[in-house]
Design goal:
It holds the Pfam family LRAT. InterPro entries: LRAT_dom. Helix 4 packs across helix 6, helix 8 packs antiparallel against helix 9 and helix 10 crosses helix 11. The chain is about 25% helix and about 25% strand. The protein contains eleven helices and 17 strands. It folds into three domains: about 210 residues, endopeptidase domain like (from Nostoc punctiforme) (endopeptidase fold (from Nostoc punctiforme), Alpha-Beta Complex); about 40 residues, no CATH class; about 120 residues, endopeptidase fold (from Nostoc punctiforme). The strands form four sheets. It has a six-stranded antiparallel sheet, sandwiched between helices.
Length: about 400
């Protein structure tokens, strides 16, 4: 689209080379050093334990180092959609996402008006029928780049800001978006393609200089895993990490971090000694592997144990998944598993701290496949962000 290649900016505080698990939304927010309500749910802070060097704002890449490789910029672990709940969480140059019934919609914030409610946004617009027809080469070009003013409904809509490990400055992002829009011939002939050039491709191009789509990458990978291994294959994180790396959609650093993290040993639960407060358990839930935090062990008998657990519960096809406390009976038949997170391989919180962290997130509705699902929640409760 453009020949000019300004320097990318990177955030170094959450470098996966130094982490033992992916950062939570709270850690990402803190790393930006910007006061925000992103880290609050129902007025309660999602507290991440204070970590050394947690505050390290975005900075330019060191001059002696090369710009990141293409697969680093496109890494789906290094690009995170963070839910926002207030106009104060959004700035000019942000890449915003609106959850839709069929697919998510993306745009670039150009400015915020003085009323602190209205935003100027540039986006690749389309209708649902246009998006579907855009799959076909015969019906391409069903979109255009538009600039408009919108008031965001933070109560009724799920709105996210996309945070990048590697990106252009927000000022440069605005310049790139407005530059493309101002070239009227280009903006009115935007060759839309649902899989190769949709609204997210336009937004990522403005932010990074590369047009890619995280949601398309996830969809393709999910389909491949389901086709080869069914529902179990989709929820097998270790296999998913391998396939993500083979398909070039995660970077080397994230792959290595995940390989160590997801290689945790598992132990079949066959007696009451196998389940304790603060443990992470795994079981089949709606035909998918599912992780939960044991809050309390209630009753046991020779055949099973009844526990209070915290997990991301399925609340129906038209409802948000919610972190809930529920009772679960675990039979001693070995089909449920305990994840063996233990020192010295893993730096973990004490059981009481694990339970406290889990309870603080009860009621959360920020579920995202591959980046904030049941296993991410359980690991956040159990594992420290960095090793001591």
């Amino acid at each position: 689209m453009e020949d000019q290649q300004p320097a990318l900016i990177r955030s170094s505080s959450l470098d996966p080379k130094f982490l033992q698990r992916p950062p939570s939304h709270r850690s990402i927010t803190r790393s930006l050093s910007v006061p925000s309500s992103i880290s609050f749910v129902d007025q309660q802070p999602l507290t991440e334990e204070p970590e050394p060097n947690d505050k390290d704002p975005e900075r330019h890449c060191d001059s002696e180092k090369k710009d990141p490789e293409k697969h680093q910029v496109r890494c789906i672990e290094c690009v995170k959609a963070i839910p926002v709940f207030s106009c104060h969480d959004i700035e000019a140059g942000d890449h915003v996402v609106f959850s839709g019934a069929v697919y998510d919609h993306h745009g670039i914030i150009i400015s915020k008006l003085n009323d602190d409610e209205t935003f100027e946004i540039i986006e690749a617009t389309n209708t649902i029928s246009g998006a579907v027809l855009g799959v076909s080469k015969f019906f391409g070009g069903k979109a255009e780049i538009k600039c408009s003013f919108k008031k965001f409904d933070f109560d009724g809509e799920k709105i996210c800001v996309v945070v990048y490990r590697h990106r252009y400055s927000k000022e440069e992002t605005v310049r790139r978006a407005t530059g493309f829009y101002n070239r009227k011939e280009d903006s009115k002939k935007y060759k839309y393609d649902l899989f190769y050039n949709n609204c997210e491709h336009f937004a990522t191009y403005c932010v990074t200089g590369q047009n890619f789509s995280v949601q398309v990458s996830k969809f393709r990978l999910t389909w491949k895993l389901f086709w080869s291994s069914g529902f179990v294959g989709v929820s097998d994180e270790l296999e998913r990490n391998k396939k993500e790396f083979e398909n070039g959609i995660i970077c080397d650093d994230c792959y290595e971090m995940n390989k160590k993290l997801l290689g945790v040993g598992v132990k079949p639960i066959v007696s009451e000694r196998d389940v304790q407060k603060g443990d992470i358990i795994r079981y089949s839930y709606w035909n998918l592997w599912h992780d939960a935090v044991v809050l309390e062990v209630s009753n046991t008998n020779k055949n099973s144990v009844v526990c209070s657990i915290a997990h991301y519960a399925f609340c129906g096809p038209f409802s948000h998944r919610t972190i809930k406390e529920e009772m679960k009976e675990i039979p001693f038949n070995g089909q449920s598993l305990k994840l063996d997170y233990a020192p010295p391989k893993y730096d973990v919180y004490e059981p009481d701290k694990v339970v406290k962290r889990a309870r603080k997130r009860l009621g959360e509705q920020l579920f995202v496949f591959f980046s904030n699902d049941s296993s991410h929640f359980a690991r956040w409760c159990k594992l420290k962000l960095r090793r001591s």
